[in-house]
Each structure stands twice: as structure tokens, then as C-alpha cells.
Amino acid sequence: xxxxxxxxxxxxxxxxxxxxxxxxxxxxxxxxxxxxxxxxxxxxxxxxxxxxxxxxxxxxxxxxxxxxxxxxxxxxxxxxxxxxxxxxxxxxxxxxxxxxxxxxxxxxxxxxxxxxxxxxxxxxxxxxxxxxxxxxxxxxxxxxxxxxxxxxxxxxxxxxxxxxxxxxxxxxxxxxxxxxxxxxxxxxxxxxxxxxxxxx
Length: 200
Description:
By secondary structure, the chain is mainly alpha-helical. It is 60% helix and 0% strand. The chain is built from eleven helices and no strands. α4 (51-61) packs across α6. It is globular, with a radius of gyration of 17 Å. The two termini are 15 Å apart.
């Protein structure tokens, strides 16, 4: 087990701390989120622009702000606050053509933001300072693959956390449930001597 942990930490260091090639901000905005994520946001009017346009538009407009904010983080709490701030802005813009019922769940918008921040920090050419400081603070994007994994959540752990194997990312409805799961994951990583966020 110790050798396995050592190897996974070494792989994690390569992926997160010394990635090649580095990508531009614009490339990451275009490529970080896939069509499966965007399909989860149902439009009020199919003739109007959908979630992919909204995410890309907001992220593009906030380029300078997000680069500066991520590179100057001093705590996990600040990263969480920044992610929630971006989620709030996205919800306002998404609500213009995404059905309101699609935007109630906390993790529905937070999971895509967690993915984007992970990609910025791990692969972005503009984020060298954040790569050194913020990598351990990154939040694991919570989705169906995570919830189905017996390695990540044993049956007992899933039950204690109120997680069902059939959950998708929208089923983590509150900020508190999200926070409880993220705390559990970081505690588990530390207990098993994985460097966050390399546990998985």
C-alpha cells in the first residue's frame, strides 16, 4: 500500500505540478467542460443560446479577474468563496434561458466550476503561482462516477454521507451537503497519505 501511495503521489505531482503542454486560458475555457455537462441544463427556448455559450461568455469576460484571484489565493476558504462567487454570477446569466428548476441544486453549477478551476490550476499557462499554492485546496468535482466508486466511498461511508450510488451531480442539492462530502474526501486523502487532490 505504501508503495502504491508513493507512486500515485508521484503521478499526481507530474499531472498537477509539472504538466506539459500548458494551455492558454482561451483553450481551457473551450475544452474544460464537455457536452454531457452542458446537456444537463435544459433551455426555456431552444432557439436561444444555451449553457455552453453562457459558461464560455462569463469565463471569457472574467479572464483577468480569475487569473489574478486564483494566483493570489491564500487559503482553501478563499478558493471556496471565489468558486461560489463565480457560481452566483453564472446562475444569474444562465437563468436568462435555462429553466429555473435546473438551477436550484448547489452542485449543478458548482461541479462545472470545480472542473474549470482544476483545469486552470493544473494546465493553464497563466496559473504558475496557483499551481504551487492552490493545488492542495482544489475541490473534487462530484458526479455519478465518484458516487458509484467503492474505492472512494465504501457502502458505509456513502450511507453516512447521505449518498446513493445512483446519484448524479445534481443530487447534491445544498452547500452544506457539498461541504460535508468535500471535508470527508480531504480527510480520507490525508489519512491515507495521499496529497490532495491526488486521492482519486
